[in-house]
Amino acid sequence: MSYVSEINHRVPKEILLIVRWPGGGIRTFIRYVYHKIDVSKWHLTILAPESGGMDLLRNDLAETNTNFIPVTGIPTDGSSGAVIFTKQIIKTLRSRKFDLVHSHGFISGTCAALPVFFCRFPHILTSHDVINKEQFFGFKGKIKKIALCVALRLVNRVHSVSKEAQENLFENFPHVDDNYKSIVISNGIEIDRFRELRHVI
Questions:
Q1: DSSP 66-131
Q2: pTM for the whole structure
Q3: What is the pLDDT of residue 194?
Q4: Residue from 135, 134, 136, 130 nearest 161 by CA
Q5: How far, in Å, CA of 35 to CA of 193, rounded?
Q6: What is the distance between the alpha carbons of residues 129 and 121, in angstroms, rounded to a whole number?
Q7: Does the N-terminal peptide bond of residue 12 adopt cis geometry, omega within 30 degrees of 0?
Q8: I need a surface site. Which of 30, 51, 76, 106 has the fewest CB within 10 A?
Q9: Strand partners, 19
Q10: What is the pLDDT of residue 15?
Q11: Beta-bridge partner residues of 103
Q12: So what's the pLDDT on residue 96?
């Protein structure tokens, strides 16, 4: 059986979430999108640094039977730890087949793009950040921009959480300005939490 036929028949489908920074808006997005997922149709695996953010995700997705792959040895000084993170991504991709890889943030997408491309898994990158041109200042900055440019070409879709975020992306990487490559799905607000809070007050 070919891999395409296999994934068409496999239930539940396997989704790998790659999350370099499992906190803030990214954590909120994952909770909103995935915490009520139909576990009979989809199974989640989250690859992220072992951290307090990872613990919060475990709580958020406790009812989804999500598999967590903690990445250890990531620097805590704010640097990306790209080499360590990429090695774990490669190890995970070699260990099993996925129906979809969903990278969250530009660092996650850049680390995952080439390994996922060679594994021939569908890959979507959600852009949670606004790009500042100062990020690409100097020699290291130029290398980062080239790496991100390559990643944006390799992923199947780029998802922005707002039109403004998409326009910012197009301004810095015009080649992404393609209806077949880029899509906007705006963030919403989970109002059920506020309804519950109203009853408590």
A1: -EEEEEPS--SSS---HHHHHHHHHHHHHHS--SEEEEESHHHHHHHHHHHHHHT--EEEEE-S--
A2: 0.87
A3: 55
A4: 130
A5: 13
A6: 24
A7: yes
A8: 76
A9: 104
A10: 97
A11: 18, 125
A12: 93
Range 180-195 burial, b when 16+ CB lie within 10 A, else e: eebeeeeeeeeeeeee
Contact (CB, 8 A) for 159 and 183 = yes
Q: In what order do the strands lie in the sheet with 100-104?
A: 67-71, 42-49, 13-19, 100-104, 123-127, 157-160, 182-184
Residue with tokens 């891999």: 3
For residue 183 the two structure tokens come to 């899509």
At 176, which amino acid appears? V
C-alpha span between 153 and 87 (Å, rounded): 21
Domain count of the chain?
1
State the residue range of the domain holding 79: 3-200
Tokens of 33: 């999108």
Specify whether the CB–CB gap between 99 and 14 falls below 8 A. yes
The amino acid at residue 168 is N
For residue 25, what are its two tokens? 């808006």
Predicted pLDDT at 195: 59
Taking alpha carbons only, the member of 37, 39, 41, 36 closest to residue 7 is: 41
CA-to-CA dists, residue 66 to 82, 120, 124, 131, angstroms: 24, 23, 19, 31
- Counting as low any pLDDT under 50, the low residues of the chain are 1-5
- CATH number for the domain spanning 184: value is 3.40.50.2000
